[in-house]
Design goal:
heterotrimer; A mainly alpha (about 350); B mainly alpha (about 325); C alpha/beta (about 425); A: about 350 residues; mainly alpha; 2 domains; two-stranded antiparallel sheet; two-stranded antiparallel ribbon; 4 strands; C: about 425 residues; alpha/beta; Rossmann fold; seven-stranded mixed sheet; two-stranded parallel ribbon; globular
Chain lengths: ~350, ~325, ~425
C-alpha cells in the first residue's frame, strides 16, 4: 500500500537513477540514518557498543569488501583474515611511528596498504578459478599471519608479539585506547561504514561495477565484449582489500585495543566473513549488513537468552548455540538459497502489491 | 654419505608418511565433490564426530549424559562396559551411515540443483551443527583413543637404515599402519567403483548427473552412499589422527591440512588426493628442514598452500583434475 | 551438573539482578573450543571453591559470593563481550585464563578500576606494580617459570650448564613466546645453547619439530604449550624415544589431560608446579561434604583433584583471601572493586594461613606490596607416574633468578608505560 512507485513521478534522469527510487524506501533509509546517527549515540553504553554495535559495524565493512570481490566479481576469497591483519598491523605501525597524524588518515592509509597487498595476492586469480582460487587465497591467509608473527619489526619488538593500540583522538575525543567513550567508538566506525557503504553502492552501480559483474557472470564472454579481465579482477581485489584493510585497522585499534595475529586474524575470521557474505546474499550491499548482523547478533542473542534468561549452564548453552546457528544457516538456505537479501527483496515485492495481491 | 643428505632423506620420508595422513582426509572431500559437486566443509568435523562416537562407544559413555543430568538432576555418566575396538568401529560405521541418511533427507534433498557455493554454505551450517552436537553428545573434554594401533619409532627401520647408512631413520609405526590402511582403502574404493553395480552407478553420476538420472539411477541413493563412504573415510582419518593427540576439538581442524592437497591433486581425482598428499607432505617437511631454521620455523602451514599455488599457476585444475572446458 | 535446570533458572534470576550486597565474581571460562579440555577443570575448581565458602561459611565475612560464569571459548572477541556483560553487575575481579584476553583487558580494567588477577599467565611484566596498578599475577609468572626450570637444571648438573643444549618447544603465540627473552638472558649468563622450536596453534602435527629434536639431540627440552599441543608433543617425544625425564613443561603443560593420551609412554615426563595437586589435602574432605555430595559441584564433578582443578581452586582461594583482607582493612563486608585492589596489594599468604584453609604445603607463601604484584615466583617440579596415573612432586620450591628477571620486567613495563603515558607509582 505504502510501498509502491505509483504516483511517484520522476521528471529528471537524476531522479530516475537514484539509489532508492521509491519514495517510501527513501524515507526508510533516511529514518535508519537518523536513528543511527541521532539516537543511538545518546543511548549506547559500554556493553552495547563493545558487544553489539562496534563489531557489527566493523564486520559490515569487511563483509562489503568481500562482497565486492566474491559477490560482484565472482572471485571467492578465503584470505580475509590475512588482509585484515595487514590493515591492523599497518595501522599499528603508522600509529606508533607518526603519533601526531590523525587516526582517520592512518586507518585510510592502512586500507591503501592492504589494497596493494591484495592486488599482489590477486594475481593468481588470472589463472585460477572457483574453489581452486578460494584455496589459493588461503596461501595469503597463512603466509601473512606467519609473517606478522615472525618478523618482530611489525610488532615493534615487544616481548610477546602482542600489539596494543595507544590512545589517539579526533577533535579532542579519544577514539582508540581504553578511555574511549562508547559513543565515540560507535560514531567513528559508523561514519567510516556509512561513507564506505555509500561508495560501494555507487561503485557497483557504475561502469566498474558492471565490469565486475560481467566477469562474474562469464569471464570469457566479458573479455569478448571488451572487458579487460586483468584490470577488472585486480581492481576488484584492490577495492575489496581496501575495505577489508580498513575493517582490520578498526577491528584492532577501536574494537579490540590489543591483538595477536594468529588469534584475532586467523583462518576462522576468513571463514566468518565469507559466511556473512553468503548468508546475507552475494552481490548485495544490504546483504552484507544483514549477514554481519546475523552472525554477530545471533550468538550474542542466543547466549543471553540461554544463559541469561533461561539460566542454562554456559557449556550446554554454547553447544546448543552452535547447533542453533548451524541449523538456522541450513534452514535459511533451504527456504531462500540466495541469502537474506533475497528474502528482503521478496518481502518488498510482496509489499508493493499488498494488500491487493491480484 | 654426509649427514645432511641423510637427515633430508629422513625428513622427506616422514613427509611422505604425513602426506598419507593428509590424503586420508582429502579422500573424503574428493568422494563427495566427485559425486555431487559439493565442497564439503564439514569433512573435518565429521572426522571429529566419528572419533568422538568411537571413543564414546568403546568406553560405554552415555550419550547426552551432560544434558540429561542437567535436565533431570540425575548422575549418569557411563553404562559401565568396555566394548572391543572392532565392535565399536562397526557401530560407529553404522552411526555414520545413519548420519549420511539424515543429511540427505534433511538437507541435500531440499537443495538439489543449487549453485555450488550454496551447497558449500549448507555444509558449513552442517559443520556448526555437528560441532555443537558432538560436544553435547559426548562432552568437550579430551579423550584417549585406544584401538590397539602401534605407536612409536619402528625399530626395524631404524636398525636396517643404521646398518646401511650409519644413521637410523625415524619412522613412526602409526604412520606405517596409516599407509597400509590408506592403501587398502584406496584399493577397495577402486575395486568398488570398478566392479560393483553401485560403483558403476557412482561413476555414472560423477560423469553426468542428468544422464545418470535418465538411465534410472537414483541420485538420492547415490548421495546417501557417497556420504556414508565419506563418513567412514572420516572415521579412519579420525582414528589415525586421534590416536596421536587424543580426541578433542582440534581434530576438526585437520581439514585445513587437506585443502592444499585437494588443490594440488584436483578436487575430482582419488589418485590426485594421494599424489597431492605425498607431494605436499614431502614438500613442507623438506622446506621446513632446509629453509625453516633460516627464517624462524613454523613454515609448514603456509608453505603447503604456496606450493599448491605454484602448481596451480601451471595447471589451474590441479594435477589430476578434470579439464575445465568453457564455452560462451 | 547436578542441579536441575529449574533450580539453575532460579539461580540465574538472582544472578541477573544480584543484590548489591553480594560479592560478585565473574568467571570468564571456556568449556568449548580448542582449549576446552584445559578450561573445564579450571572453571570447575574456581566455582567449587566459592560454593564451598558459601555452603560452609556462609560466604566471605558473611557476604555470599555469586560467581557468574561466562563462556569465552578462548576467543578474545567473546572475552570482550563477557567482560562488558559482567562488569556492570559490580564485578570485583577478573581471571580470564587466557593470555590473549588478559592483554585485551589490561587497559580496560585500568580505566574501569577493576582488579585483574592472572596467576601464572598473562602479561609477565604486570608483576611491576609501579606501572600496572590494577593487574596482579602472583605467585609466579612465565619468566619466573623459565628461570625456575633453568635453576633446577643447574642443580641437576652441579651448577654448570656450559655447553648444554636446551630446546624450547613453544606455542607460536604471545603466550609461547613469553619465556624467550628470559631464556636468552639466562643463556648468556650460564653459557648453554638455546634452540627455539615454534609449533603453530593448535599443534596437531609436530613431526618436523621432533625430527629436528632427534637430530640435534638437545640435553633438555622445555615446553610452553597449551591444549592439544601438549599431548601431541609428549606423544612425539615418546615416539622418538626422547628420555622423558629430560623433557620439562611449564605449569600449563603439566596436567592429566596432557599425559593421559600418551599412556605409559608419558611416564617420567616433568613439569613445573606452582602448587600441589591430588585430593590429599584436608580441604577436599569439606569439598566432598559440602559441594560434591550436596550435588552442587560445578561441571560433571569428575575433575576434583586434578592439576588444573587445583589451579582454579588456588586462584579462587587467593581471591577469597584478598576479599577477606579487604574486609579487614575497610571494616565492612560489602566491598567494592576499588577497595579490593588495595586488599590484593596488601595481601599476605603465609603457610600457617594455608594450613588453616586446609591446604598445608600446597602453595608458596607470599606477600604483595605496592611495587611487587608478582610474588616470589617459585615453583616445584612434578613428575608423571604413568602406572599410578598421578603427579609426584620431586623437588621443593625452587626460586627464580631475580637478578636476571627484574631488569627484564623493568624494561618491558617501562616500554609499556612510555607507550601509554603512565607515571610510576609507589615512589
Amino acid at each position: 500500500m505504502f510501498y509502491r512507485e505509483a504516483g511517484d513521478f520522476k521528471t529528471r534522469y537524476v531522479d530516475d537513477s537514484q539509489t532508492f527510487p521509491i519514495r517510501f524506501d527513501r524515507w526508510r533509509y533516511y529514518a535508519v540514518l537518523a536513528v543511527a546517527f541521532g539516537v543511538v549515540p545518546f543511548l549506547i553504553n559500554d556493553y552495547w557498543a563493545n558487544a553489539v554495535f562496534v563489531p557489527f559495524l566493523i564486520y559490515a565493512i569487511a563483509a562489503i569488501g568481500l562482497n565486492i570481490l566474491t559477490g560482484y566479481c565472482g572471485q571467492v576469497s578465503l584470505g580475509t583474515g590475512g588482509f585484515m591483519a595487514v590493515g591492523a598491523y599497518a595501522c599499528y605501525k603508522l600509529m606508533t611511528a607518526f603519533p601526531e597524524v590523525s587516526i582517520l588518515i592512518h586507518v585510510l592509509l592502512a586500507g591503501g596498504i592492504t589494497a596493494l597487498v591484495g592486488v599482489l595476492f590477486g594475481l593468481p586469480s588470472l589463472r585460477i578459478k572457483g574453489f581452486y582460487l578460494a584455496v589459493a587465497t588461503l596461501a595469503a591467509q597463512f603466509f601473512l599471519v606467519w609473517l606478522f608473527n615472525k618478523v618482530p619489526w611489525f610488532y615493534n619488538y615487544s616481548a610477546s608479539g602482542q600489539i596494543n593500540a595507544p590512545e589517539r583522538t579526533i577533535f579532542g575525543q579519544a577514539v582508540t585506547g581504553a578511555a574511549t567513550t562508547p559513543a565515540a567508538k560507535y560514531l567513528f566506525c559508523l561514519v567510516i561504514l556509512f561513507s564506505l557503504a555509500w561508495l560501494a553502492r555507487n561503485l557497483t552501480r557504475g561502469t566498474i561495477g558492471r565490469k565486475w559483474m560481467a566477469i562474474r557472470d562469464m569471464d570469457i564472454a566479458a573479455e569478448i565484449i571488451g572487458v579487460n579481465p586483468l584490470t577488472t579482477k585486480l581492481s576488484a581485489f584492490a577495492v575489496s582489500s581496501f575495505y577489508i584493510g580498513v575493517a582490520g585497522a578498526l577491528f584492532f585499534a577501536v574494537y579490540l585495543g590489543a591483538a595477536e595475529v594468529g588469534e584475532a586474524f586467523g583462518i576462522q575470521k576468513s571463514f566468518l566473513v565469507l559466511f556473512m557474505v553468503i548468508i546475507g546474499g552475494l552481490g548485495s550491499i544490504f546483504g552484507s549488513f544483514a549477514g554481519a548482523a546475523f552472525l554477530v547478533l545471533m550468538p550474542v542473542l542466543l547466549k543471553n537468552l540461554l544463559v541469561g534468561t533461561l539460566g542454562w549452564p554456559t557449556d550446554l548453552a554454547a553447544h546448543i548455540e552452535l547447533m542453533i546457528v548451524g541449523g538456522l544457516i541450513v534452514l535459511f538456505l533451504i527456504v531462500e538459497p540466495h541469502g537474506l537479501a533475497q528474502l528482503w527483496r521478496v518481502a518488498k515485492e510482496k509489499l508493493r502489491l499488498w494488500p491487493f495481491p491480484h | 654419505m654426509p649427514d645432511e643428505i641423510l637427515y633430508a632423506a629422513e625428513a622427506g620420508l616422514n613427509g611422505l608418511m604425513a602426506g598419507v595422513l593428509y590424503a586420508l582426509v582429502a579422500l573424503g572431500f574428493v568422494l563427495i565433490f566427485k559425486a555431487s559437486g559439493i565442497f564439503n566443509y564439514a569433512q573435518g568435523v565429521l572426522a571429529l564426530f566419528a572419533a568422538l562416537t568411537l571413543v564414546g562407544f568403546q568406553n560405554g559413555q552415555v550419550p547426552f549424559a551432560h544434558l540429561i543430568n542437567a535436565i533431570f538432576g540425575t548422575q549418569i555418566h557411563e553404562f559401565g562396559w568396555h566394548l572391543p575396538a572392532v565392535v565399536a568401529i562397526l557401530l560407529t560405521g553404522a552411526v555414520m551411515v545413519l548420519l549420511a541418511i539424515l543429511i540427505e533427507r534433511l538437507i541435500l534433498k531440499h537443495l538439489v540443483n543449487q549453485a555450488p557455493i550454496i551447497l558449500f554454505m549448507a555444509t558449513i551450517g552442517l559443520a556448526y551443527f555437528l560441532e555443537g552436537f558432538g560436544d553435547i553428545m559426548w562432552g568437550a573434554d579430551i579423550k584417549k583413543l585406544d584401538v590397539g594401533l602401534p605407536q612409536g619409532i619402528s625399530d626395524t627401520v631404524e636398525s636396517v637404515t643404521d646398518s646401511l647408512f650409519g644413521y637410523g631413520f625415524f619412522i613412526d609405526r602409526l604412520d606405517i599402519v596409516a599407509t597400509v590402511v590408506a592403501a587398502l582403502l584406496v584399493l577397495s574404493l577402486t575395486l568398488f567403483s570398478q566392479f560393483t553395480k553401485y560403483g558403476r552407478a557412482l561413476r555414472a553420476v560423477a560423469d553426468d548427473h542428468q544422464a545418470a538420472l535418465s538411465v534410472g539411477i537414483s541420485l538420492r541413493f547415490i548421495w546417501v552412499m557417497v556420504w556414508s563412504i565419506a563418513g567412514i573415510v572420516a572415521l579412519v582419518a579420525g582414528v589415525m589422527w586421534g590416536a596421536k593427540s587424543g580426541v578433542q576439538f582440534s581434530l576438526s581442524l585437520i581439514a585445513l591440512k587437506a585443502l592444499p592437497v585437494l588443490m594440488l591433486g584436483g578436487f575430482t581425482s582419488i589418485p590426485g588426493a594421494i599424489v597431492g598428499g605425498l607431494i605436499i607432505g614431502m614438500g613442507e617437511k623438506l622446506f621446513e628442514f632446509f629453509v625453516g631454521p633460516m627464517i624462524g620455523g613454523a613454515t609448514e602451514n603456509w608453505f603447503a598452500y604456496v606450493l599448491a599455488l605454484l602448481f596451480l599457476v601451471f595447471r589451474p585444475q590441479g594435477l589430476f583434475g578434470e579439464r575445465i572446458i568453457e564455452r560462451v | 551438573m547436578k542441579k536441575r535446570l529449574t533450580a539453575l533458572a532460579a539461580l540465574a534470576l538472582t544472578c541477573a539482578t544480584p543484590a548489591l550486597a553480594d560479592l560478585n565474581i565473574p568467571n570468564l571460562s571456556y568449556r568449548t573450543g580448542p582449549f576446552a579440555a584445559g578450561g573445564i577443570p579450571y572453571a570447575d575448581g574456581f566455582n567449587d571453591y566459592f560454593t564451598l565458602l558459601n555452603e560452609r561459611d556462609g560466604g566471605i565475612g558473611g557476604e555470599k559470593v555469586v560467581v557468574t560464569e561466562c563462556e569465552t571459548a578462548y576467543n578474545t572477541e567473546k572475552g570482550v563481550e563477557c567482560y562488558e556483560a559482567t562488569k556492570g553487575n559490580g564485578a570485583l575481579v577478573y581471571n580470564p585464563l587466557s593470555t590473549g584476553i588478559t592483554y585485551q583487558l589490561i587497559p580496560k580494567v585500568s580505566v574501569d578500576k577493576i582488579p585483574l588477577y592472572t596467576p601464572g599467565y598473562g602479561r609477565t611484566s604486570a608483576a611491576n606494580g609501579k606501572i600496572f596498578e590494577w593487574v596482579f599475577n602472583y605467585p609466579a609468572n612465565y619468566w619466573d617459570g623459565a628461570s625456575d626450570i633453568v635453576n633446577y637444571l643447574l642443580t641437576e648438573n652441579g651448577g654448570d650448564l656450559k655447553g648444554k643444549k636446551i630446546a624450547l618447544v613453544y606455542h607460536n603465540s604471545a603466550y609461547g613466546k613469553e619465556p624467550i627473552p628470559t631464556l636468552t638472558a639466562l643463556k648468556e649468563k650460564h653459557g648453554f645453547e638455546l634452540i627455539e622450536i615454534p609449533v603453530d596453534s593448535p599443534g596437531q602435527e609436530q613431526k618436523s619439530q621432533w625430527l629436528q629434536i632427534r637430530r640435534d639431540k638437545p640435553d633438555y627440552v622445555l615446553m610452553w604449550g597449551w591444549g592439544v599441543m601438549n599431548a601431541v608433543a609428549i606423544q612425539e617425544a615418546a615416539n622418538i624415544n626422547y628420555p622423558m625425564e629430560n623433557f620439562i613443561g611449564v605449569w600449563w603443560s603439566g596436567s592429566e589431560n596432557d599425559v593421559l593420551p600418551a599412556g605409559d609412554a608419558a611416564n617420567g615426563y616433568k613439569s613445573l608446579a606452582m602448587h600441589g595437586s591430588g585430593s590429599d589435602y584436608p580441604v577436599y574432605a569439606d569439598l566432598q561434604k559440602y559441594v560434591v555430595e550436596a550435588g552442587k559441584a560445578s561441571g560433571a564433578g569428575d575433575q576434583v583433584g586434578t592439576v588444573l582443578y587445583s589451579r582454579g581452586m588456588y586462584a579462587a582461594m587467593v581471591i577469597s583471601e584478598a576479599i577477606r583482607k579487604t574486609q579487614e582493612m575497610t571494616g565492612h563486608a560489602a566491598i567494592t572493586a576499588v577497595e579490593l585492589r588495595d586488599g590484593f596489594e596488601a595481601l599476605e599468604i603465609t603457610e600457617a594461613r594455608m594450613a588453616e584453609l586446609g591446604l598445608p604445603n600446597f602453595g608458596q607463601p607470599f606477600a604483595a606490596s605496592c611495587a611487587d604484584h608478582g610474588g616470589p615466583g617459585q615453583a616445584m617440579i612434578q613428575q608423571w607416574d604413568a602406572a599410578a596415573k598421578k603427579w609426584n612432586l620431586i623437588t621443593p620450591f625452587i626460586a627464580p633468578d631475580d637478578e636476571v628477571i627484574q631488569p627484564l620486567v623493568d624494561a618491558d613495563s617501562a616500554a609499556f608505560a612510555a607507550e601509554n603515558n603512565i607515571a610510576e607509582r609507589c615512589n
